Amino acid sequence: MADHEIMDILLTVDTELSAALHQQGKSPSANFDSSILGRCAAGDFGIVHQMERLETHGQKGVFFVDPMPALVYGEQIIADIVGPIIERKHEVQLHLHTEWLQWARDSPVGNRQGRNLLDFNFKDQVELLRLANDLLIKGGAPPPTAFRAGNFGANDTSLRALHHIGLKWDSSFSPCSVMENCKIDLPENQIVPILKNGIVELPVSGIFSKPMEVRPAQICALSIAEMKAAMDHAIEDGHPAFVIVTHSFEALSRDRLRVNRSVLKRFEQIAAYISENRNMRTSGFGDLSAKKMLAHHNNFTRLEPKTLRTTMRMVEQLWSTWRFERSMKPL
Asked: For residues 194 and 1, what is the distance between their CA atoms, to the nearest angstrom?
């Protein structure tokens, strides 16, 4: 990539209340505190913290907000999520977890249920997407233009449904084997944006951690060395965009009792690295040109595995798991 060309980096945050916590009988406020604010004994490390750290480095985030819990908790809880994001001038886009239908007082698809959006036919997917779109706007968000399916559980029908309701972008596709919920019919190693069923698909980025094994560009999945190397490679290879994934609660331990300071540090380091690199900028979907995203050749490559880099990440994650995930008093 020439010096004057800048790669758009989408630092995306899947922002969602926990269906599991609801099923365990946790109150809406407890679910909100844990899942959205990332609250534990050490403080809050969710979306407010993420926005503060991004802003410190002059960056912006894309928050894919799931409005489906409004069917269970009421619409105000979505406004409470969306409001601070809009106020701080980050971007809100549409997310959707169909798991919430099992507790919904009123559903647009009757008694039909499914864990993923792809479990529904075209008509039902359209109805669910319309409902989620309307709930998000009622919560104070501008009309969304982009979508990511909960659990990455989308298929080609989902793209047709998105096009039908007027959205432009999707970022549900990942070739990573752990994201096998995604059934969008694209080549396994699809890297760059592609127009499919009327929607521009912007795949989640990733690296080869082993030959033919892709690891996603998720903050809890890659070390900072891997993430930096992946972004540098994408620039050198001419990729028009690089998509990073995290979650509103990702800085907490799996039991939500402690902050995982390893993940917290990675988030900070990524934001700082982007700000230091003149060939990178964080962008929202509203900043992107579909024409530019689609104007590319088709032989892009993914960062190849490097034994030392992979080994160092595995060691780091073993230490992080021992330090932050084992049973102990909250930090």
From this structure: 20
Would you give the distance in Å from CA 256 to the centre of its chain? 19
Specify whether the CB–CB gap between 274 and 281 falls below 8 A: yes
13 contacts 47 by C-beta, under 8 angstroms: yes
CB 172 within 8 A of CB 158: yes
- φ, ψ of residue 184 to 5 degrees: the values are -65, 130
Distance between CA atoms of residues 23 and 25, nearest Å: 5
Q: What is the pLDDT of residues 102-137, one digit of tens each?
A: 999 899 999 999 999 999 999 999 999 999 999 999
Task: Please spell the DSSP secondary structure of 209-226, one letter per residue.
Answer: EETTEEEE-BTTTS-HHH
Q: Give the class (CATH, top level) of 7-325.
A: alpha beta
Query: DSSP code of 278?
Result: T
Token look-up 């985030």 returns: 61
At residue 172, the pLDDT reads 97
Domain spans, the chain: 7-325
pLDDT tier at 253 (50, 70, 90 boundaries)?
Answer: confident
Contact partners, residue 217, CB within 8 Å, separation at least 6 = 204, 205, 206, 207, 227, 230, 242, 243, 244, 245
Dist CA 287 CA 78 (whole Å)? 24
Backbone angles phi, psi at 246, to 5 degrees: -145, -175
Q: How many CB atoms lie within 10 A of CB 47?
A: 25
Which stretches of 7-59 are assigned E, i.e. beta strand?
7-15, 39-40, 43-44
Q: Summarize pLDDT for 181-191 with one digit per residue, the tens.
A: 899 999 888 89
